[in-house]
Each structure stands twice: as structure tokens, then as C-alpha cells.
Design goal:
The chain has 15 helices and 12 strands. It is an alpha/beta fold and 470 residues long.
């Protein structure tokens, strides 16, 4: 299907709808997206030269704390023996590990969880990389400084705090906006279409995409994504009356400035929802191998949105999705194995869909999680810890590599602050700085996006802090 540009008026004409309403999700999204509280900031935002290329970042939150030391596992004789000894009844048998052959060997052998054969294939074919032992840090930390220094992440080992820190990358502050929101505040004006937010969420109003100017536009993983008023396409008497009543309210001239702003926001939300829904219906077809679980359905809707990028006239987008269930204190091996299967299927299908659209090089998907888990068993699961492993997927990723420092897995090692809680050796700031630079931020922007970055790496032109992006 040939790509066409539709303005808002054409979208409404194509839908054949002269009046409509919005649902609660779209209303909330519209209120934040249109910037009732941030209009002044938006008016003074810097303007960047438009870019002709397209780029998207897709953040996948593994909510609850992914036990990533049972995802990426040392498989060499000595290292596996350490792993098996500390993990006891949580270990995966050495013979069951899927072998990995990294191009940047560190003298160790590694294997992957046996339920991840598709991710193994993506790694081996250069489409995916791992970043080892990454986590939230205020500054480089050792066991000595951990025991004597107060400059540590707030609420260390707490689900709510650590999940927020991964999304803000300012772990000393519980009030910070998200680094994806700060990134969007800088780059959003590159998008020709300012009706729809640069930041699209499949899981509500998250911290990662919350900026001073830009807020996430929340959609649902079904139908056309945008949530419209029930009965919007029904011509029955009551539905028609409901639409006409809403339009009458929106067309009223209010004297109160807040009433006017609220009315305008509702009207804009209504129109933006139509624009988005029509774009989804008219987006390019793609190879659909997605299964029916929640993560697959969310990534399928991300694909539909990306497939409509030319209709929506978007050059930069971020997406937020999450997969829950990682708070594995009990029945660990079965529950975590099932989650690895879902992650394997969903990420593989997502890459195939993007590849069929010719956009695999333009979209980078990355995982975050609250934390990894303690190396020691609590009986049939594991408790909250700190550093863990992340995955990065996309055609622009320097794949088939394991970046960062994979730690020793025995108790009392140089990173162990107790019972196998390991200090991260790569900071979230370094991880996110690489993604932000690939996305289009300049090195001069990084101090605004990631205020702690200079504690770990000095931003420089034409340089990446880790090297997993090309």
C-alpha cells in the first residue's frame, strides 16, 4: 500500500464522524499530552532541525525483578561449579543451557536459559546483545564505600524505588521525571506531527516517559489502540444524543480560563484519538507471528503504530511496555521459565515484524527491571538484590556480544554486599546514554537527560560509553 499523508481533517472525513467522545484513558492521555500545565515550557522549548529518518526506542520493563543470573549463565566448568554451588535448588542443569558464542570473549563460556532458543538465534546472528551486571548507581560503588557511604540509591532493594530509578536514572531522588521524558523534551519538536505525543505507552502513565513538556500518550493493546467513547460508531438514538451533547459542551465559550483549557483539551483528545485510530487502520502490513499473551499483544500494537509512522508523520517515537510476574519468591524454576518463554516468543515476533517492514535497523528494543535477585535461595525462590543483566535488540545493535563485566558468582566476592547481592559494574546512566545518543541526542544533551552521567563517563562527540550501538 502506498504511503499517504493525512492531516487531521482528512482523518475525520475518512472516518465519516462529525462528532464523538473520548474514554477515560484517552482523556487522561490527552490532558497530559496537550500540556495544560506545561504549555509555557513547550512554547520556550528549543527547536531542532527536522530529520528525514525514523528512529524508535522500545522499553520493555520486566516488572518485579528479573532473576537474570538464571537467564545468562556461565557454562564453563569452574564458573558453572560456582554458579551451581551458590544457586543450589535454583540452578539450571549445565547440559540444558543453550550455548552462546560471543564475538568479544572474556575467557569465560556462557549459556542461555533453555526456554530462550529464539533469543539464542538472534544473539548468534548478531541481532541482540547482553549488557552484564547493570544497575542503578549514583556513583561508582565498592563494598567498602557501600558500607561507609550514604550516596547510594534511595530505597535500595525496594521494588517501587528501584523500578522508578531505572526509569529516571536519578536514583538519589524520588521526585524525578523519566529519562525518556527528558529525552523527548529535547527532541519532540523534530516530529512534524505535534498532535500525538512522541512517547506512546501500552501500560499507562509511566515514569520513564514523563517529561516536563512531553507526557506519554496511552493506548491499549487491542483494536486501534486509542480508547474512544463506547458506542462511538453506533448510530442509535442514545449514542447519537451522547455524542451531540458532548460536542455541544465542547463548543461552548467558557469565561473561566481553566474551563476553556479543559474543554479544549477534551476536544483535542477526541480528535487525536480519531487520528491515531485511523492511522492504525491504514498502516503498512507486516509479518504477524505474535502469540496471544499480554507482552506479544503489546508489542504487536507497537508494531502497528510504527507501521503507521508515515501516515502519522512521525520521525521519533518511544514506546513503553511491561511484562509482570518477576517477583519470584516461590516456585521459581517453573514461573521464571514460563516468563522466559513469553519473552523469547514476543521479542522474536517483534523483530520479525519490524524486519518485514524494513525497519529493523531503525528500532532498538531494550529491557529494564527493578533489580536482579540474590544468588542464594530463600527456599524455593530468591529475594531482592541489585545488579543484573539486560538485553538490547535491533539491527543497529552490535550483536553477538556480552558487554560490561560479568561478575563472579560465589559468596563473598569483591562485589557481594551480602548473600549474593551484587554491586552493579555498569551504571544505568552508561546504558541509557548509549541509547539516547543513538536515538539522536547530542553529547551536549546528556547532562540534561542523565544528570549523573559524568560520574561514570565523560560525554564526547562520536563516542559511545559501552559500544553496543553502531
Amino acid at each position: 500500500m502506498a504511503n499517504k499523508y493525512y492531516d487531521r481533517r482528512n482523518f475525520l472525513r475518512q472516518l465519516g464522524l462529525g462528532c464523538a467522545g473520548v474514554g477515560a484513558t484517552t482523556l487522561l492521555s490527552g490532558i497530559t499530552n496537550m500540556g495544560l500545565l506545561n504549555a509555557a515550557a513547550a512554547a520556550n522549548a528549543p527547536v531542532y532541525a527536522p530529520q528525514n529518518n525514523y528512529k524508535a526506542l522500545v522499553c520493555v520493563l520486566l516488572s518485579g525483578g528479573n532473576d537474570s543470573y538464571n537467564m545468562l549463565i556461565p557454562s564453563g566448568t569452574d564458573e558453572y561449579a560456582d554458579y551451581a554451588a551458590v544457586r543450589t535448588n535454583l540452578k539450571i542443569e549445565q547440559a540444558d543451557l543453550l550455548p552462546l558464542n560471543p564475538l568479544n570473549p572474556d575467557g569465560k563460556d556462557y549459556g542461555l536459559h533453555p526456554n530462550m532458543p529464539k533469543i539464542q538465534n538472534m544473539f548468534e546472528t548478531g541481532k541482540l546483545a547482553f549488557v552484564a551486571n547493570v544497575g542503578a548507581l549514583v556513583e561508582p560503588t565498592s563494598v567498602t564505600s557501600y558500607n561507609t557511604d550514604t550516596n547510594l540509591p534511595v530505597g535500595l532493594f525496594s521494588h517501587s524505588d528501584q523500578k522508578q530509578h531505572w526509569q529516571t536514572s536519578i536514583p538519589q531522588d524520588r521526585r524525578a521525571n523519566g529519562w525518556g521524558g527528558r529525552l523527548a523534551d529535547i527532541l519532540y519538536s523534530n516530529n512534524s506531527n505535534q498532535n500525538i505525543s512522541m512517547n506512546i505507552s501500552l501500560d499507562g502513565l509511566n515514569v520513564f516517559q514523563r517529561g516536563n513538556v512531553v507526557q506519554p500518550f496511552t493506548i491499549e493493546p487491542k483494536d486501534t489502540g486509542a480508547v474512544l467513547l463506547n458506542g462511538i460508531q453506533n448510530s442509535g438514538f442514545y449514542e447519537t444524543l451522547k455524542r451531540q451533547s458532548l460536542d455541544s459542551l465542547l463548543e461552548t465559550n467558557y469565561q473561566n480560563i481553566l474551563e476553556t483549557a479543559y474543554s479544549n483539551t477534551i476536544a483535542n483528545s477526541k480528535n487525536n484519538s480519531f487520528e491515531f485510530s485511523s492511522a492504525i487502520l491504514n498502516g503498512l502490513p507486516f509479518n504477524d507471528t505474535f502469540l496471544g499473551d499480554s507482552l506479544s499483544e503489546r508489542l504487536k500494537m507497537v508494531t502497528k503504530t510504527i507501521a503507521a509512522k508515515d501516515i502519522l508523520n512521525m520521525q521519533y517515537q518511544t514506546f513503553f511496555v511491561q511484562l509482570g510476574g518477576f517477583d519470584t519468591h516461590d516456585d521459581f524454576l517453573a514461573d521464571h521459565g514460563a516468563l522466559m518463554t513469553r519473552l523469547d516468543d514476543a521479542l522474536s515476533s517483534f523483530y520479525e515484524a519490524l524486519d518485514s517492514l524494513g525497519l529493523a535497523n531503525d528500532v532498538t528494543t531494550f529491557t529494564i527491571s527493578d533489580f536482579s535477585r540474590k544468588l542464594v535461595s530463600n527456599g524455593n525462590g530468591s529475594d531482592h538484590a541489585w545488579g543484573g543483566h539486560a538485553m538490547v535488540m535491533g539491527g543497529a545493535v552490535n550483536g553477538q556480544n556480552i558487554y560490561g563485566q560479568y561478575p563472579d558468582l560465589y559468596l563473598g566476592n569483591s562485589l557481594d554486599v551480602g548473600n549474593g547481592r551484587l554491586i552493579p559494574t555498569t551504571s544505568c546512566d552508561e546504558y541509557f546514554a548509549e541509547l539516547a545518543l543513538w536515538f539522536g541526542a547530542s553529547s551536549a544533551d546528556l547532562n540534561q537527560i542523565l544528570p549523573n552521567i559524568n560520574n561514570f563517563w565523560t560525554p564526547a562527540s562520536n563516542a559511545y560509553p559501552i559500544g553496543f550501538m553502531s
